[in-house]
Amino acid sequence: MTRLDADTGAMPSGSLKAFAELLDRLVLTPSRNGKLRLIATYLADTPDPDRGIALAILAGELSLKAVKANLFRTLAEEHIDPILFRLSYDYVGDLAETVSLVWPQKADNAGSLGLADCVARLEALTRAEAPAVVADLLDRLNPAGRWALIKLATGGLRIGISARLTKQALALYGGKDVAEIEELWHGLKIPYGDLFAWLEGGEKPKNTIIAGFSPVMLSHPLDAALLSNLDLRDYQAEWKWDGIRVQAVGQQGVARLYSRSGEDISGAFPDVVEAIDFDAVIDGELLARVPKTGRTGTFSDLQQRLNRKTVSSTLLAKYPVMVRAYDLLRLDGEDLRERPLSERRERLDTFIANLDSDRFDISPALEIPDAAALSALRANPPEPPIEGVMLKRRDAPYVAGRPKGQWWKWKRDPFNVDAVLMYAQRGHGKRSGIYSDFTFGVWQDGETGLQLVPVGKAYFGFTDAELAELDRFVRNNTVERYGPVRSVRAEPQHGLVLEIAFEGLNRSKRHRSGVAMRFPRISRIRWDKKPIEADRIGALEILLD
Amino acid sequence: MRASELLTVTDSGLYCPPGGFYIDPDRPVDRALVTHGHADHARSGHAHVMATQQTLDIMKIRYGAGFAGAEQAASYGNDLNVGGVHVKFVPAGHILGAAQIVLEFEGVRIVVSGDYKRAPDPTCEPFEPVPCDIFITEATFGLPVFSHPPVVEEIGKLTTSVTDFPERTHVIGAYSLGKAQRLIALLRDNGHDAPIFVHGALERLNAYYVSQGIELGDIRLVANSSAEEMRGAVVIAPPSALGDRWMRRFDDPLPGFASGWMQIRARRRQRGVELPLTLSDHIDWPDLTATISEIGPGEVWVTHGREEATVRWCELNGIKAQPLSLLGFEDEAE
Ligand SMILES: [Zn+2]
Ligand SMILES: [Zn+2]
Questions:
Q1: Exposure check for chain B: N or C terminus, fewer CB within 10 A?
Q2: DSSP conformation letters of A494-528
Q3: Which fold has domain B151-277?
């Protein structure tokens, strides 16, 4: 019996193979914490500049489209019988994976190729030399590395994690505040040598970027009990707008729009960016505007503009957007963040008055003589894109993160609907083996009478004891199984009614019901109700307008 | 004598007419020769069973003492005579006690490989190639995409994860006969000395492996241990337990699966595992084609698995080959 050497099991640091293995683990690790740890560990184990290249890929800052996928197929078929290739491809179903697996293994140096090396060669690739270079790279990798190479080279790598998560992993790795990383981010260059040096105890990189991002100030949730302890005279009240928190930045002729996590979203909102002709940093809410009326639209309208890299002129005309400003962080080179809110607010009022009102207006301060007035405003907001009220201390400076006792948000009561449990899926992590993801539906008139149509999915809102009961119900009422998913009995007289609380509704083409819930959770299990007593789709549709 | 007269395919499986016996029949017969203890090869209820002593012991553990009317042990390498046919059991490298069965009659030699592999396995005798006229091979992983990574790399993935996530219980699904014990033995060889916790379904087979001189180290039962004790440890369980209520006893378990199928990304996602380990007790494509070349048989017959690709490869390499459509072999959990 030979003793296996633990060291030979480890992958060479910085290799494309190690990066491929990280990607594979990230895909299969459901928990956020687990993903953060995997990335942080990888960064610790990997030398420069490979980890910097990896970071750029993870954060979506680097993508190559050097090679057509078909080249890999052609190359593979030089090494393998076409029928054997077809049988393999049929079985695997993914071209990159098939080629990575059938490529003949050159045993001696497999796995040694570095990530940075590999990316540099792909970036310098000319069309004529592509086949030879790519074949050479494939020869020097193992299957996991080849898979990553093909996905990288063809621009087909889907990481499935957000840029924000990557920055949080950096914060975890270096023991820093994520806000500091976000502030620096846009001024950093691949492969981020100075960033890593700082994370490992060195000097902090200088922020040289023009029109950079300033990390935002966040609020704590409020309730009636907490409210009774506040002296309302110290606070300014505002509506809590139901849009997207943004930061509009102008400096030395450069204009940028950032999301609250510091992602540059300028490309999707040229209409707003065009109107940033000032030297200032505005904190506000991006809202849809109804053309020609001057009114703000719903979150559903705004959705038409979200998650796009670029935007057509038709869409710009049909769904214009604007920024409703509530804070001013910098004006004409002067940093206002240390000043109290009352002063910033005064400067903001004068400043906004001079801007194009189609693109920038102000989130008005509300009159609140007492707590009852605040409750009343919260319960009866005047316009649709409002989801509650905000309280901000008048003397508070603008502090990145979530400082205690400064800003409060009090969301309006959630909406409720009675829905019927339709499918359940086993959870992950602590809940693995337990049916803990629930898809529910409401009644709709179909061709064959009333039918259930799914309207959402919830995986929290219940206690452990309730979860055990839900799990038991699923196991005892299973109709069909599909992998980790079970469909359960959901008939007019037999099934389970769930009271679902949610924050709002969007129109959705992806859902058969035409609506998608925002933040649904199970507020009560209605063992006392029969499915037929659950709500109809009409009860939801009226909320859309 | 033609090979097809020495061995034919019947409804009950492979049958040797001159010897009057079946090999790995899938229903009760009068006389059965059994390659190894996996349930799709070793079934109970035969009147007379010949197998290695270890295979017979394993059948007794799984089916009880009355698993067959009569049993006869065959030692590796011994020349035997069954109904006039010359028979020999040769190590297959698949699991403890697994054998290839070599038949010889009137100058024709057939090797029935059963299940086999060439990858390192501290729990059983390594595969021995036997020159023959007909080689009957399995093709569970008979596609060019199945090139299983070095065992040491896969074990390294598990030990690295245990180091990186010391607060999570690593619950690894592994087929309870063979794969589970091999995984434990490989971990031990790799210097993992901590207690390994096992599902109750593995208890008797583990004890049997230990009685046969396979060292498994400090093995404890999950049922006798607290979530606290098992935090950061490796737990081994039959694959079916991973989707079960049984998992609830662990704090924040990290589910893994040790199987040759884990090489394919879509299969990993299907299983819902976080830590896939490509560890197979079946032969992979490079070893399969190398073994055929090494043995140099006149003809290859291909059984359970992906016969088409293996037959195609043989044709391309000038070796006569045909698929044998044997039903009833399932290696999904392998
Ligand atoms: Zn087997
Ligand atoms: Zn088998």
A1: N
A2: BS-EEEEEESEEEE-SSSTTSEEEES-EEEEEETT
A3: Rossmann fold (3.40.50)
Ranges under pLDDT 50 in chain B: none
**Residues in a beta bridge with A69:** none
**For chain A, which residues make up each domain, given as ranges?**
1-206, 220-411, 415-544
Coil, strand or helix at A140: coil
User: What protein residues have CB closer than 5 angstroms to ion ligand 1?
Assistant: B 38, 115
CB contact under 8 A, B144 and A84: yes
- In CATH terms, the superfamily for domain A1-206 is DNA ligase, ATP-dependent, N-terminal domain (1.10.3260.10)
Among B148, B151, B153, the strongest candidate for a mutation testing the A interface, having the largest count of A CBs within 10 A, is B153
Of the candidates A331, A211, A216, A204, which has an alpha carbon nearest to the alpha carbon of residue A273?
Answer: A211
The burial of A536, by beta-carbon neighbours within 10 Å (0-12 exposed, 13-18 middle, 19 or more buried), is given as middle
Tens-digit pLDDT profile for residues B171-227: 999 999 999 999 999 999 999 999 999 999 999 999 999 999 999 999 999 999 999
Determine whether the interchain pair B252/A430 forms a contact, defined as Cβ–Cβ distance below 8 Å: yes
β-strand pairing of A515-518 with A504-507: antiparallel
Q: Is A184 on the interface with B (CB under 8 A)?
A: no
Instruction: Say how far residue A432 (Cα) sits from the centre of its chain.
Output: 24
Q: How far is CA A160 from CA A164, A291, B257, in A?
A: 12, 35, 22
Quick one: closest CA in A to B158, which residue? Answer: A9
Its ipTM equals: 0.94
User: What residue spans define the domains of chain B?
Assistant: 3-145+282-323, 151-277
Instruction: Characterize the bridge pairing of strands B234-237 and B275-277.
Output: unpaired
Instruction: Note the pLDDT tens digit of each residue in A120-176.
Output: 999 888 888 889 999 999 988 888 889 999 999 988 887 778 888 999 999 999 999
Amino acid at A32: R
CA of B217 to the centre of ligand 2 (A): 28
A1-206 and A220-411 share one fold: no
Nearest-by-Cβ selection for A1 from B122, B269, B270: B122
| CA B238 to each of CA B199, B242, B251, B259: distance values in angstroms, whole numbers, following the listed order | 7, 8, 19, 12
For residue A153, give both structure tokens: 């080279």
Locate all alpha helices (DSSP H) within B110-230, ordered by sequence. Answer: 151-164, 179-189, 203-211, 227-230
- Name residue B29's amino acid: V
3-state secondary structure of A442: strand
- The fold of A415-544 is OB fold (Dihydrolipoamide Acetyltransferase, E2P) (2.40.50)
A101·B243 Cβ contact <8 A: no
CA B234 to CA A114: how far, in whole Å? 32
Nearest residue of B to residue A6, measured between CA atoms = B190
Q: Is A433 in contact with B245 (Cβ distance < 8 A)?
A: yes
Domain B3-145+282-323 has CATH 3.40.50.300: no
Among the listed ranges A6-15, A145-154, A351-360, which one has the minimum average pLDDT value?
A: A6-15
For domain A220-411, give the CATH number.
3.30.470.30
Measured CA angle at A128 (ends A125, A130), to 5 deg: 45
Cα three-residue angle A467-A473-A474, rounded to 5 degrees: 90
Tens-place pLDDT, residues A49-105: 999 999 999 998 887 877 888 899 999 989 899 999 999 998 898 999 999 999 988
pLDDT for B52: 98
Q: How far apart are the first and last CA of chain B?
A: 37
Q: What is the full DSSP assignment across B40-63? A: TT--S-EEEEEE-HHHHHHHHHHH
Q: Cα distance from B266 to chain A (closest Cα, Å)?
A: 8
Of the candidates A9, A87, A483, the beta carbon closest to that of B308 is on A87
